[in-house]
Specification:
about 625 residues; mainly alpha; 29 helices; about 75% helix; globular
């Protein structure tokens, strides 16, 4: 009786391994040795993702009281769904020429209707299992909207569409096989693979030890370690919750032991982890979607994101530093800290692949796909050559499995978002919503940005960042560009708020994950995280009105922008905490607030004045603290 479940688990594990290895071979091969037609490639990608989702997320998962009969029925249902997903995907692949011709001519055959309907239902169920109910419900509501649109009066009405016409749209490159899924297949998976092999090679431990060596002995060391480690790890994970769970398991208890309150410890990790989605060079999956949707090279997106991301982390770093000043929190005992030199030497095999990635992306302007593949091959090469800790065959297989597991959340979000985007395209709902934003905002960019922020924040509370961004980009971005905001700034604005929703109360998934580790009330953690991450809510408005923050050149303007970015980050942290090396007056806090407001402007002269004033008053406070022998002076 006890051997049957074990045998079943072995079968599932073997199936996962086979599918995961096939995924690596297919995706790497498609950009090196062969090139499949895009829709055929996307069909393979959806097939792989759906099979892995139903293997990793079986029906009744987590229910310990399932009886044998019920468990057997659930397994049969899962394998029927997997068989249908395989069969429909293979039908598209094998009959690709006929399928493409029918789609181009808007011919709805019985096969297309039946297979398209079944695949749409499978995608919705996959999304429900991985992401919860919110995204599938939104997708279903859009389908209902298309069906009953003829009965809706006013701006948001449409002519009404039959179920067959809707399914044709969903089962095409305007729906499930559309841009979101295409981005997942072309870019995101390969970077998930790159991140997986970095982790298999020990990146998490290396990044953690670097953070400890750099900041451990400083005042508030554990919190500063959390910021650095999460920034480093976040660049390769791109998931706020995954980042919280991985680095937070170590940093949050350490912060609590050193003197930070549980709410602050959880909030620091939540804010630091959320920033990984906006931190180059890898960022999160939504950044790749942004590049495709906006038609902007990914390297350009990375460069534009660099200064705002650094401001986000500099502000957070100063926040936790001043928190340590307030509560007199010392650093860790230096004798127990790892050596930075030996840690960097040990991690050289990981830094070289990241360097290769940057050189290929930014230097040689290669496609993200090629950069990710060659960077992953560099990991494998250095791993094999490492005699002390070589990359074994098991490590290679583990990397493939980890890549496939990471794909589940991305594919479910992208494929289901494809349903939403398909309905938006069919009914013109995106354009109607965009016009509504413009009208509601009275043609004011400021008001329209505020409305867009609210929409993104609300969607982001219940959706993954990628899905929230896709919906916002489809519905809101045209309104912002219509009001004169450049395409890159408009899409980055939406990306930031879709990302920062992870720490936006009342539903803040990163804060909730951190609260679980900190054993603290989730709402308390969310409110502290909102305060610590406040710059993340200001930055999108800053670069919307001052686009120098999105441009890095060898010029005096960029130099002033860099200095003002530093001043704004520090000044806002001081305003919120009310400390420099000791408590400051209310007048000084208002002065620092004024400095931040002036420094962030696009007027170079004003920025220079703000920088100079900051240097004087901050310098005087530091000098006074040094004379008094205060901690950290």
């Amino acid at each position: 009786m006890k051997t049957a479940p074990l045998s079943y688990k072995k079968i599932v594990s073997a199936a996962i391994l086979v599918v995961s290895v096939f995924a690596v071979v297919l995706h790497v091969g498609n950009f090196t040795f062969f090139t499949l037609p895009s829709i055929k490639f996307f069909a393979y990608h959806v097939m792989i993702g759906l099979v892995l989702i139903f293997l990793y997320h079986p029906l009744g998962k987590g229910v310990a009281t399932l009886g044998r009969t019920r468990r057997t029925v659930y397994r049969i249902i899962d394998f029927v769904i997997i068989a249908l997903a395989l069969g429909i995907s293979l039908w598209v692949i094998v009959n690709f020429d006929n399928y493409s011709q029918d789609m181009q001519n808007n011919i709805i055959t019985d096969e297309i209707f039946i297979f398209g309907l079944i695949l749409s239902l499978i995608v919705l169920e996959a999304s429900r299992r991985v992401l919860g109910l919110v995204l599938p419900v939104i997708a279903i509501l859009t389908v209902v909207y298309a069906l009953i649109g003829a009965h809706i009066p006013g701006l948001f009405g449409n002519r009404g569409y039959s179920l067959r016409r809707i399914v044709l749209s969903l089962f095409s490159d305007r729906g499930i096989y559309g841009v979101p899924t295409g981005t997942s297949a072309s870019n995101v998976y390969l970077f998930l693979m790159f991140a997986a092999y970095l982790n298999v090679s020990g990146a998490d431990e290396i990044f953690q030890n670097i953070a400890i060596a750099l900041a451990g002995k400083k005042r508030g060391g554990p919190a500063k370690m959390a910021v650095i480690a999460s920034a480093l790890f976040g660049t390769i994970s791109g998931s706020s919750v995954a980042n919280v769970v991985s680095t937070g398991a170590f940093t949050i208890p350490l912060m609590k032991r050193s003197g930070y309150t549980p709410a602050t410890a959880g909030a620091v990790e939540a804010v630091a982890s959320t920033g990984g989605q906006i931190m180059p060079p890898i960022m999160g999956a939504a950044a790749f979607v942004l590049a495709d949707v906006a038609g902007i090279p990914y390297a350009t997106v990375c460069i534009a994101s660099l200064v705002p991301a650094l401001m986000y982390y500099i502000s957070l770093f100063k926040m936790v530093d001043l928190e340590a000043v307030r509560y007199q929190i010392a650093g860790l005992d230096p004798s127990g800290l790892p050596s930075l030199k030996s840690t960097v030497a040990k991690g050289l095999k990981l830094f070289v692949p990241v360097g290769v990635l940057l050189v290929l992306l930014l230097g040689f302007k290669t496609t993200p796909m090629v950069a990710a593949i060659y960077s992953t091959l560099t990991i494998a090469l250095f791993g094999v050559l490492d005699r002390k800790d070589p990359l074994t065959v098991k490590g290679i297989l583990d990397g493939a499995v980890s890549s496939g597991q990471s794909l589940c959340s991305v594919l479910s979000a992208c494929a289901t978002s494809g349903i939403v985007v398909g309905i938006f395209s069919l009914t013109g709902l995106g354009l109607k919503f965009s016009n509504f934003i413009v009208q509601l905002g009275s043609n004011s960019l400021v008001l329209s940005l505020v409305l867009s922020m609210i929409v993104c924040a609300i969607l982001g509370m219940g959706l993954p960042t990628t899905a929230a961004y896709i919906v916002c980009a489809t519905a809101v971005a045209p309104a912002l560009t219509k009001l004169g905001l450049p395409v890159l700034a408009a899409h980055l604005f939406l990306l930031y708020f879709a990302s920062i929703s992870a720490i936006t109360p009342p539903v803040a998934v990163a804060s909730y994950a951190a609260a679980g580790i900190a054993n603290e009330n989730p709402m308390k953690v969310s409110l502290v995280a909102f305060k610590l991450g406040i710059l993340g809510f200001i930055l999108p408005f800053a670069f919307a009105f001052n686009q120098d923050y999105l441009s890095i050149t060898f010029s005096f303007t960029t130099l002033v922008m860099m200095l003002s970015a530093f001043v704004v980050s520090y000044a806002l942290a001081i305003v919120l905490q009310g400390y420099v090396e000791k408590k400051i007056t209310i007048v000084e806090r208002f002065l620092y607030l004024g400095i931040a407001a002036v420094a962030i402007s696009s007027n170079i002269a004003y920025s220079l004045i703000a920088i100079a004033v900051f240097a004087v008053i901050y310098g005087l406070r530091k000098r006074e603290a040094k004379k008094l022998g205060l901690m950290g002076a």
